[in-house]
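Entry 14. Structure prediction run on the chain below.
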Amino acid sequence: MRIRYTRVALVLGLLFALNAVSASALASTSVNYGDISHKGLKNLGPASTGLKLTLELGMIANQEGIKNAVKAASNPSSSTYGKYLTLSSLQSKYGASSSRRNAVVGAFKPYGVTATVDVTHLRVSATISIKNAQKLFGQKWNLYATGEPNQAVALPVNTPKLGSGLNGNVDTVAGLGLYVTQKGSASSVRSTARARIAAVQGGTPTRTGTIEPGCATTTYPAGVFSSSGLFPNQILSAYGIAQLNASGLQGQGARVAILGEAPTPISDVNAYRNCFGFAGTAMQIHGGSNIAPILESSLDAMTVAMVAPKLSRLDLWVKALGQSDPQGALKLLAEPLQATKNNVPLPNVISISYGVCEASVAPYSAARTLFNRQAAATASLGITIVVASGDSGSSACAHGVPTAQLTSADKKQSASWPATSPWVLAVGGTNVSLTPANAIESSGVWNDTEYPAPYAQAAAGGGGFSTFTNRPWWQPAIPSQSAKRMVPDVSAFADPAPGYVIICSKEVSGCGPSAGQSITVVGGTSAATPLVAATIALWDQQAKQAGLPNPGFVPPLLYSIAQHNPGSFLDITAGGNAVFSGVSCCTASTGYDMASGLGSPLANQIVQDLHR
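Output returned:
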């Protein structure tokens, strides 16, 4: 554990003792191999020894020290508030020792495998054939039928054994199971185009307020005369972001990384910038050259460019996730930190607009453990990870399931992962009605089941509580829940009716049929998430310019501000996010609730309270 000491010799001595205790303790404790059980599955015989396993091995390190370092730096009442770790101090003080790293890497060398150490010094990655894995772990691998059509999974027959170099150095191993086919993951973006009606539960499913159309009057006139879609000027004004932009806060010196499953055409992002006056930093895309662009990434990129057009860096990291196993999400989360090996600076904020229901990832305890360790290490560096809470209300397992195929298990209360990680800021969704001056006249929880036809959908802002993550220290308990992590933390405009106006071309999956670029209206917590992420970048910029402590990992700060200055949030008290009858969670109320979190952060108000 991290304790404030006055003598360097004492610190070093106790750290050495902690490491020694951890090593000896592991010898008598079990290793987390994740979901390798094949109980109840039909054995199809030996797995092909040529199949490749992508392994992630968590090394013994000072994980409690990392958690305590985050708490010390992010707690506004701490004397060390704002003093986050550097990457080198994370490695040297809390990462695995060089002897441990070398031993784990060396364990793979006899098999011709080059294992790599993550930049945090917490994890080793290696790709190894089942033939060699059987030797390394002392077990055979068989194929087992999963019960899904044409799907099998390769799993070790019995519990693996850690061999020389791994035993005593590794406490978590993910990737020992290999699916022959993959299950789709879920993003959080929706599109709409409909006609005007009156406000319901605080929001109006058609455009309200006053637009500044930019080039759209001549280039995209249909978008101007439609009743759908809020324009950038309206969203920026509604949340006090325009006021910050006008004062000079446009992201200068700050960096945002978007994590996505596919790229977006740079030409579309540039067209959006040029049309609405957001000249600034060109986005850099890493990976995904063989993946078709999707609307999700277009929305993410354009929303960030709208809020913080002059960031010093805007990066989109792309990886096709493809299945519920969180190991892919772990690899993608690690990309911005790994890029420091190529002299890419660390981001201030990371935006994630994907997720799956917790039941899908519950069995993958090893990969989830490693994800949380990576997220904690990221937070210790003063980086906020912002995650969408989902678009299926308080029934996250219903996302993407055709109505006719929904089961009672799909409909029951469930939250979305990784929004339920204790090391992220989870963002929910609201609807809005705007005044002619684009102030928020009323706002409620986004829930399209409340709208009449043709607006009704089984879609709403995600929320609820985790089944496997405990409530973090920075999140106060509420009468209905005191033990588990609750989501969302905050919320913002997400309703696809009326939605966000963006520009896209026909090569983007989900865009309109136009031969060239056109205005498309989209929504979901995939819109609210980059909106909040880019706003945090503005707060980081202001804190740095004013000589204030680095906000860094902001959830503790936001909860503190909400307690001492609740007017910094638009409290959402109307509506709820249950999309199926019989689901009691969750309803908006005064203060924190699991339908809207703390409410919607007002950028120009919170920026005045960053010193808290």
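The longest strand covers residues 425-434.
Filed with the rest of this week's runs.
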